[in-house]
Amino acid sequence: MKDSDLLDILDDLTDDQFGNFKWHLKEYEKVGDIPPIKQSKLSKADRPDTVDLMVQNYKLSGAVEVIKNILKKISRDDLVRNISSGAEGGEGSTGATVVQKPTTSEQPAADRDLQKVLNTYKINLRLRCQHVTEGTDESVSETLLNSIYTELYITEGKSEDVNAQHEVMQLETASKMETLHDTPIKCHDIFKSLPDQQKSDIKVVLTNGVAGVGKTFSVQKFTLDWAEGSENQDVSLVILLSFRELNLIKDEQFSLLMLIHVFHPTLQKVTAEKLSVCKVLFIFDGLDESRLSLDFNNMKEVVSDVTEKSSVNVLLTNLINGNLLPSALVWITSRPAAANQIPPTCVNRVTEVRGFTDAQKEEYFKRRFSDEELSSRIISHIKTSRSLHVMCHIPVFCWIIATVLEHMWTPDQTGELPKTLTDLYSLFLLLQTKMKKHKYDEGHGTSSQELTEADGEVLLKLGRLAYEQLEKGNIMFYQKDLEQCGLDVTETSVLSGFCTEIFKRESVIFQKTVYSFVHLSVQEFLAAVYMYHCYTSRKTKVLEDFLGEEISSSLDNDDDYSSLEVFLLGAMYKSLRSKNGHLDLLVRFLHGLSLESNQSLLGGLLGQTENSPEIIQKVINNLKRMNSDEDEDEDDGDDISPDRIINMFHCLMEMNDHSVHQDIQEFLKSASGSKKKLSVIHCSALAYMLQMSEEVLDELDLNKYNTSAEGRRRLIPAVRNCKKFRLSNCWLSETHCEVVASALKSNPSHLRELDVTYVELPDSAMKRLSAGLESPNCKLETLRLSDCRLSEISCASLASALKSNPSTHLRELNLSGNKLRSGLKLLCDFLESPHCKLETLRLRSCKLSAISCASLASALKSNPSRLRELDLWENDLTSSDVKQLSDLQENPYCRLENLIWGSLWSMLDSV
User: Fold this and answer.
1) pLDDT tens column, 74-115
2) For the chain, which terminus, N or C, has the lower number of CB atoms within 10 Å?
3) Are 261 and 305 within 8 A, CB to CB?
4) Per-residue DSSP letter, 561
5) In sequence order, what DSSP letters do the residues of 181-239 get, joined into one string?
6) pLDDT tens for each residue of 25-65
7) pLDDT given at position 724
C-alpha cells in the first residue's frame, strides 16, 4: 500500500466525517511507545497533510491499522471491508493492498476522479513550494519557506510615476512607508476586498515591486498555503507559471489546456470539461522578464476555447482580457517599469510590494540567526549606514548583508565592516569566490584569500554579460547570451552565488536553462567592475560605446584633468542623461571602486589606476561643482532631471566624503540657516534629506533659500514630501514639471497647495504637470498658476486633466495674469463637470474675450456650481459682458458670494 492509497480512503469521507476522523486521530490511544499526533498539528491539516502526519508518526504499516480502527468508529465499515489485509507482498510489503473503492458514494465518479487528480497535484505543488534557497546557490541545503517567511508590506494602489526612477530611488521613497497610513494587504488576501471597501469581484490583480523585493516569495507562499489547505480553499486549482519559462516556448503554438499539461504534467487528466467547472487561478510571475509581445491594443485574434491553439502571447492576452476562460482569476507580478504592458482597463486591483518595514527587517535577521547576539549586532550595524538600511527593504539584500556580516564576525576575520554599498558588494564578491574555491578547488594549493587569474577571467566575462544586458534592460538571459560573452555554461555553473542555474526542467521540451544574477544590484556591481577594468585596460571600443568617442579619446590627452577624473566625469554625465536612471547605481559603484581600499580587496581584477589622495580629492571636488550655474545655461537645452543629479550626492557618500551631508545637517539645525548661501550640490543633498524625512513638511517655499536659480531647481524633488510648495520667478522645463507631477501621482500624495507664480511654463511642461493633476492619487486643493504665460494649448491640457479626475479636490484655481482669451472656454468644460468642487476662481488681467465671458456665464448657470468667489479684476470687459456675469447671482444655481470687478464698479453702477 502507498501513501496515495491512504489519501484515496480519506477522499471518500465527507467533510463532517473527515472532521470526526481527525478528532479520533488526536485522541487515539498510544501505540507501543508512539504517542498520538498532537492537536496543534492536526487543527489545520487537510487530507494530504493528515496522511503525511500519520505515516511520519506510525510508519506506513501502522498508519493502515490506525485508519482501519478509526473508520470503524465513524461507521465507515464499507471502506474497511475494501481494505484487503494479510495479502502476501514482495519486498517492502505492508501487509495490506490497495483499497478497492466502493461502487456507491456520495460523489459522482467524475467528481471523485477530478478530486484525486487535484489532491495529487497539491502534493506535488507543496513539494515544489515548501523549500526555498536564498540567493541562487542551490548547493546549500534548502530551507523551509514557512520557517523564514516574513510577512511583506503590501499595499493597494501604487505610485504611478516610477518609470523614470532607478529602483534604489523607489526604495528610498518606500523607506518611509511606516509613517504612511495605507491599509496593508496580506498576500493570501490579494483577491479579497479590504474591510472598508464595498465587496466586488476582483478577477485580475497586478502586483508591482522592485527587483528582489519579495514578489516571487509572496507568490510561493500563497501557493503553498493553498496547497496545504490553510488559505483560499474556494479556489479549486492554482496554476503557477513564470515568464522565464514561457519565454522558452514563445515561438510555438499551444492551447491553454496544452500549456497547463506541459508545465504541470500531474494535471494531464484535467480535460476542458473539468477545467470549465473549476475555479481556476493563474499566477504569472515576473512580467518584467517577459520576452513575449503582449499586444492588447491590436487583439486581432480572439481565442475563447481552451483547446484552441495559438501563440503564447495571444493566449495570455485573451486570458487576461477575459475572452478565454472568463471565470478564471489572474495574478500578475512585475517590476514597476514593465507593469504598463497590462492596460488599466484589464486590471481590477493594483497592489505594491514595498518590502520589509523596519520591524520586519529585524524579524528577518532574528529568524535567520538563532544567535540573538549576532542578529542584534547585524541590526545595529545596518542602522549606522543610510545606504545599507534603505537597501534592507529588499529581502534578497538582507540575505546578502547577512551572508557578509556573518562571515566577517568569525574569529579569524579582522577586516573593517562595510559602510557603503561598494564596500559590501566587494566583500560579497570576494566571499562568494572564496566559497567556490573551498567547494571546487580544495587540495589544489590555491590561496582562498586571493582572486586567481582564472577567477578574474570568469568574473570579467560575467561583468561583460552584466553590462551588455543592463544596457538592453534584461535581468535574465539564456545560453546564447552567455556564449556571446565567451562564457562556458559549465564554467559559470561553478561560480556559486552569482550566475547559476535557476530554471527547472518540467519536460523534455524545456532542455534549456535560464540564468540571472542574485539581484539587479549585483548585476550593476559586476557591470561596474567590468567597466572599470575596461578603463584601466584602455579597451577603446568599449569605452567609446560607454562614454562617447570624444570623451574616450581625451582620457590620456587632457591637460586639465587626470584620466580617472575624465572617466568618472564621463560616466556621470552619461547616467545623468539616462531617462530611467538605469546607470545610476553602476556609476555609484564606479566612484566607490576608485578608492584604494576596494581595489586592494579585489586584487588585480580592476587593473592598475592612478588614485592618489590628491586625484581622489579632485574627483570629489568635480562632483561638488558639476552642473553648477557656471557650467550650465538655462536655455542650452540640457534638460537634466534634478532626481538624476541627486546621484552625485550618493557618489560622494560611496567615496566616504560626508562633508556635504554634515553641512546640510548643520544647516537644518541652525536657526539662521536660511541666510547661508547654498551651492547646487548642497541643494541636491538638501532635497534628498527633506524628501527622506519622516515628517511631512507643512510648507516648502524655495524662494526663502539663499541659492541660485539652478539651486532652487535642484530642491524641487523635495516637493514629494510637503503639503504646500511655492516657487516663483524661475524657469521650469518639462523635466522639472515631471518631478512636480510625480508628487501629485505618488501614493499617497501629500501635496495640497501648489504655487508657481511668475514661473514660465512651456506647453510641454504644462502637459507633464497636467498628467499629475489627472491622477486619482492627486489631492491638490489649491493651484496657483499666475503669470505663467499659459497658451491655449496649455489651457486645454489643464482643463482636460481637471475634468478627467473624478476625485478632484481642487477648491481654488488662480490663473491671473495669463492671456487666456479663448482659452477660458476650454476651462469651462471643467466648471460644468459634476465633479467640480471649485469655490474660488481668480482670473485677474486675463484679457477675457466676449466669447470667454459668455462661456463662463453659461457654465456657472448650467450646473449647481459651488463657486463662492469669482475674481475678474482688470479685465477689459464690455457692458454686455458685465451684465451677463452680474446676472449670475440671480440664477438659482449660483452660490457666488463675492464677485470682484475691481476698476469696473462704475460700469456695474450704470448697468
Assistant:
1) 877 777 766 644 333 333 333 333 333 444 444 566 677 788
2) C
3) no
4) S
5) ---B--GGGTTS--TTS------EEEEE--TTSSHHHHHHHHHHHHHTTSS-TT-SEEE
6) 887 877 666 778 887 788 778 888 888 888 887 877 778 88
7) 96
Q: What is the mean pLDDT of residues 474-485?
A: 84
Q: At what angle do helices 109-129 and 215-227 cross, to 10 degrees?
A: 140
In angstroms, the CA 216 to CA 219 distance is 5
Reported as a single tens digit per residue, the pLDDT across 325-334 is: 999 999 999 9
How far apart CA 487 and CA 452 sit, in angstroms, is 17
Q: What is the pLDDT of residues 691-708, one digit of tens each?
A: 888 788 999 999 899 998
Q: Are 577 and 404 in contact (CB under 8 A)?
A: no
What is the mean predicted confidence (pLDDT) over 346-370?
85
119, pLDDT greater than 90: no
Instruction: For residue 217, give the nearest of 76, 45, 356 by alpha carbon.
Output: 356
Q: What is the DSSP string of 109-131?
A: HHHHHHHHHHHHHHHHHHHHHSE
- Cell 532574528, located at residue: 366
Using CA atoms, how far apart are residues 6 and 793, in angstroms rounded to an integer?
Answer: 74
Strands of 753-755's sheet, edge to edge?
697-701, 722-726, 753-755, 782-784, 812-814, 840-842, 869-871, 898-900
> 682: closest CA among 736, 628, 759?
628
Name the CA radius of gyration of the chain, rounded.
33
Q: Is the peptide bond before 776 cis (omega within 30 degrees of 0)?
A: no
Amino acid 705 reads Y
Element (H, E) at 842: strand 840-842
| Whether the predicted pLDDT of 446 surpasses 50 | no
CA gap 605, 455 in Å, rounded = 9
- Residue 96 amino acid letter: A
- Predicted confidence (pLDDT) at residue 128 exceeds the cutoff of 70: yes
Residue 635 has pLDDT above 50, yes or no: no
The CA-atom distances, in angstroms, between 255 and each of 262, 280, 739 are 10, 16, 45
Alpha carbons 475 and 683: distance in angstroms, whole number = 34
Q: What is the pTM of this model?
A: 0.74
Burial class (CB in 10 A: 0-12, 13-18, 19+), 823: buried
Grid coordinates standing for 216? 516571487
Residue 256: what pLDDT? Answer: 94
Residues paired with 144 in a beta bridge = 131
Q: What is the pLDDT of residue 89?
A: 36
Measure the CA–CA gap between 299 and 290, rounded to whole angstroms.
18
Predicted confidence (pLDDT) at residue 606 exceeds the cutoff of 80:
yes
- Greatest C-alpha distance within the chain: 118
Q: What is the DSSP string of 769-787?
A: HHHHHTSTT----EEE-TT
Spatial separation of the C-alpha atoms in residues 731 and 744, rounded to whole Å? 20
State the pLDDT confidence band at 507, using cuts at 50, 70 and 90.
very low
Q: Report the C-alpha gap between 5 and 10 in whole angstroms.
A: 9
Short-list 339, 197, 157, 349, CA closest to 779? 157
Per DSSP, the chain holds a count of helices (H) and strands (E) of: 39, 23
| 134 Cβ contact list (under 8 Å, min separation 6) | 143, 148, 396, 399
The rounded distance, in Å, linking the Cα atoms of 766 and 862 is 28
CA 499: distance to chain centroid? 22
Pairing label, strands 730-731, 759-760: parallel
Report whether 863 contacts 836 (CB < 8 A). yes
pLDDT in tens, 850-899: 777 888 888 777 666 678 888 888 877 777 777 777 776 677 767 777 87
State the sign of the Cα–Cα–Cα–Cα dihedral 810, 816, 817, 822.
Answer: positive
Rounded distance between C-alpha atoms, residue 838 and residue 877, angstroms: 23
Place of cell 521650469: 732
In the prediction, which pLDDT does 786 show? 93
The pLDDT assigned to 723 comes to 95
